[in-house]
Amino acid sequence: QDLASCGVTEGSCAAYWNGPYYCECLFERLCHDDADNILRMNMWTIFASKENVAMYRVMVIVHLAITIPVRWLAAETHNLGHHRWLPRSMGRVVDVLEAACAKIVDGNVDILDEKFMMNLFSVFRLE
Question: 23-33 pLDDT, tens per residue?
């Protein structure tokens, strides 16, 4: 699961932040090259599409709000024993994440709500 999460969400961060530069470069190459380049044209079409930008934005939110905190908790579990955090405590992380996803799916919360998304695991900070 970590490999899929890393590849998709971390790659989306770079594509979202650098997307305007990719579009500018591809558009410039399309305008100045004599030969038709179907690959460049398709890449420019994809990077410039609003749907693609929206997908990258959501994946960046998932990476920053979910992937990084869960990865940190999993990696630091052995150092958090003095906070009464055990390997089985990761099950609580899954429960919190499931409840948050249910709120998003039900329409009670928007995934673009920064306060909600960045505080998904705030309950664990209090421990």
Answer: 888 778 777 77
